[in-house]
Amino acid sequence: MKAIILGIGAAFFFAITFVLNRSMELSGGSWLWSASLRYFFMIPFLLIIVLWRKNLKDLLREMKKHPVQWLLWSCVGFGLFYGPLCFSSAYGPGWLVAGTWQITIISGSLLVPFFSEVIQTPNGPVKVKGKIPFKGLMMSLIILIGVFCMQFNQGEDISLKSTLLVVLPVLIASFAYPLGNRKMMQICEGRLDPFQRVLGMTIASLPFWIILSVYALKTVGTPSVSQMNQSLIIAISSGVIATVLFFKATDLVKDDVSQLAAVEATQSVEILFALIGEIIILHAAFPSMFALFGIFLVIIGMILHSYISRPKDVIINEEIGA
C-alpha cells in the first residue's frame, strides 16, 4: 500500500509536466528546450541532495562499474521518454498527452517476460523468468477504457494527423520509461537509493540533452525567460519530486513484477490531475458526464489492480486460513 500511495503522489507532480508543457507550446516555446532544460535544471538540485546525504562517492563508484549500461539505459529511460513526450505536447492538449501516456500501464506489463523476479522457496530465494500478469493486465484495460471515455468527446475535435503525432511518440515513451527504469534497477541491485539513481541517470543522459539543445539553438534560437521559468518548475516538481517518489515506490516492490505493474498503474491518475490543472490554469472546459464516467472507471480499475497485485504470500495465507 505504501508503494501505491507513493505512486499516486508521483502522479500528481508528474501531471504538472503535461499542463506546463502545453502552456509553453501555446506561448511559442519549442519542445526541444522544454525537454532538455528540465534535465539541465535537475542536476544541481539532485546533486545537493546526494551530497547532503554523503552518497556521491557510492554513486560514482557504481557508474564506473558499468559506464556503457548507464549511458544506454539512462538515454532510453529519460531521453526516449521525455523527448517524445514534449514533442507530443506540440500537437495536442495536455489531457490528450496525459491520456495517451496511460498506455504505459500496458507497456509495463508486456515488458515483464524480459525480466526476472525473486520467489521465496523452502530452499531460499530463487530468480525465475517473469510472466505477464494477465489478471493485472485486465485491470489495466479497465483503466485504459476509462481514459478513452475521458478523451472521447474532446478527441472528435482533434485531427487525425495531430492525433498520430501525439500517439506515436507517446507510445515510444511508454515503453522507454519502464524499460530504462527496470534495467537500471537490475544494474544497481539495490545498492543505490532513489536520489542517487535519479542523479546518476540524469548525468548519464546528458549527451542526449546536449545534442538536443545544440540542435534547438541552431534551429529555434535561445529559450525565453518564461520557458526557462516553467522548465525550472517542471524540473523541481516532475524531475526531482515525482521521479524520486516513483523510483522509491518501484524500489519497494522491485522483486515482485506484479506489484511493480501495480505501481506503474498508479500513473493513470496523472490524467485526473492534468485535467484539473488545465481547467484551472489554461481554462479548459469542464469534462462531460461521459468523461466523468471515465474518471470513475480509472479509480475502480486502480483499486482492482492493487487488489489483484497483492503479494503472493498474503494471498496464500488467506487461502489456507492462516
What order do the helices and strands come in, and which of them pair?
Layout lengths: L1 H25 L4 H22 L3 H10 L1 H23 L4 H8 L2 H7 L5 E6 L2 E6 L4 H22 L4 H29 L5 H11 L1 H14 L5 H28 L4 H9 L4 H12 L7 H20 L3 H8 L3
Antiparallel strand pairs: 1-2
Give an overview in words.
Keywords: Membrane, Transmembrane, Transmembrane helix. InterPro entries: EmrE. It is a single chain. This protein is mainly alpha-helical and 322 residues long. It has one domain. Helix content is 77%, strand content 4%. It is built from 15 helices and 2 strands. The protein has a two-stranded antiparallel ribbon with strand order 1-2. Residues 312-322 have low confidence and may be disordered.
| CA-atom Rg in angstroms | 20 Å
Mean pLDDT: 81
Largest sheet, strands/sense/barrel = 2 strands, antiparallel
How do the strands of the widest beta sheet line up side by side? 1-2
Considering DSSP H and I runs of 4 or more, what fraction of the residues is helical? Answer: over 70%
Q: Give the overall silhouette.
A: globular
Number of strands: 2
Q: What is the number of domains?
A: 1
- Strand content is under 5%
- Write down the secondary-structure element order: HHHHHHEEHHHHHHHHH
Counting DSSP H or I runs of 4 or more residues, the number of helices is 15
N→C terminal distance: 21 Å
The structural class is: mainly alpha
Q: pLDDT under 50 segments (min length 5)?
A: 312-322
